[in-house]
Design goal:
By secondary structure, the protein is mainly alpha-helical. It contains twelve helices and two strands; from the N terminus they run ββαααααααααααα. InterPro entries: TPR-like_helical_dom_sf (IPR011990), TPR_rpt (IPR019734).
Length: 273
C-alpha cells in the first residue's frame, strides 16, 4: 500500500500490513475512547483548513515573548576612555534602542559589544531577545544557547528558549525547556500553557492535559488554557471534560469556541453527546 501523508499532527503512523493511526495516550483522565476515530475527508484540503483554523484558535491571544523580555544593564567593569566608546556605553545604546523597539539597530549595537567581548552574557541575552522580537528564532536560539550556564536558574530564560525551540519545530527540546521553566517558577501560567502546547505536539496527551489544567487554575479567565484542555480531552476521547471546557470557552471567547466546535463536528462526530 502506498504510504499516505499523515495530515493530523496529533496522530502517529503505525506501519504494517494495514496503515492505521493510534493515539499515544496514557493516564486516566485523558484516556482514549477507542470508539472515537477520525473522519476521512473526501477533500484533504478541507482537513488542512480545519487544522489551520484550530491552530489559529490555539494561538488566541498567543503568548508573546515581549511579555518575557526584560532588558537589563550588565555589571561591566570598564575604564572610561576619553573620546572612545566603551563596551558599556555601546551596550547601553543597544539597550535604549531595544526598549524603543528599534530591534535592528539594537542588534547591530549588541553585536558590536560581542566583537569586543564575545562572552558578554548580557549582550548575548539581549541579542537573543531582539532577534526574537524580529521573529528570527533560529538566530535567537544560537545566542541563547551560549548563555545557558549563565541563566540556568532563571525561569524566563527557559521560557524564551522553549519558545525558540517551538518556532523551529524542535518540540521535544521545547518541552524540556518549559518543564525546566515550570520547575523553577510553578506559578507561571504562560510556561504551563506552552508546556501543554509542546506536549500536544508530541502527542503526550496526559502531560498536555495536566499542563493546560495547571494553566487554567493559575489563570482561569484566560481562554487559551481552556482551549488547550478542550483539545487534549477531545483527542483523547474524554467528552465530559471537552463539553465542560467548551462551555467555559463559550463565555470567555465565543469565536474560539465556535472554531473548536466546528473542528469537533468535522473530525470527531462521535464525540457529540
Amino acid at each position: 500500500m502506498q504510504e499516505t501523508e499523515n495530515l493530523n499532527p496529533e496522530f502517529m503512523r503505525v506501519k504494517g500490513k494495514k496503515q492505521h493511526y493510534r493515539r499515544k495516550c496514557r493516564g486516566k483522565q485523558f484516556q482514549q475512547n477507542p470508539a472515537m476515530g477520525m473522519v476521512n475527508f473526501p477533500n484533504q484540503s478541507l482537513r488542512w483548513l480545519f487544522s489551520f483554523l484550530i491552530l489559529c484558535a490555539l494561538a488566541l491571544s498567543a503568548s508573546s515573548l515581549t511579555g518575557k523580555i526584560c532588558f537589563a544593564v550588565p555589571e561591566i567593569v570598564s575604564e572610561a576612555t576619553s573620546g572612545a566608546e566603551t563596551e558599556e556605553s555601546i551596550f547601553n545604546q543597544g539597550l535604549t534602542q531595544a526598549e524603543k523597539g528599534n530591534f535592528l539597530e539594537a542588534e547591530n549595537l549588541f553585536r558590536r559589544v560581542l566583537a569586543i567581548n564575545e562572552k558578554n552574557p548580557q549582550a548575548l541575552k539581549n541579542l537573543g531577545l531582539v532577534l526574537i522580537g524580529m521573529n528570527r528564532h533560529s538566530d535567537a536560539l544560537e545566542a541563547l544557547e551560549k548563555i545557558r550556564a549563565d541563566y540556568a536558574r532563571e525561569p524566563v530564560f527557559w521560557y524564551n528558549l522553549g519558545q525558540c525551540l517551538m518556532k523551529t519545530e524542535n518540540y521535544s527540546k521545547a518541552s524540556e525547556a518549559f518543564e525546566k521553566s515550570v520547575s523553577l517558577d510553578p506559578d507561571d501560567a504562560e510556561s504551563w500553557l506552552e508546556l501543554g502546547r509542546s506536549c500536544l505536539r508530541l502527542n503526550d496527551l496526559t502531560r498536555a492535559g495536566e499542563s493546560f489544567e495547571k494553566c487554567v487554575v493559575l489563570s482561569p479567565k484566560d481562554p487559551r488554557g481552556h482551549l488547550g484542555c478542550a483539545m487534549a480531552s477531545l483527542i483523547a476521547g474524554n467528552t465530559i471534560i471537552f463539553e465542560k471546557e467548551l462551555s467555559m470557552l463559550k463565555s470567555l471567547s465565543p469565536e474560539a469556541a465556535a472554531i473548536l466546535d466546528n473542528f469537533r463536528l468535522q473530525n470527531y462526530p462521535d464525540s457529540q453527546q
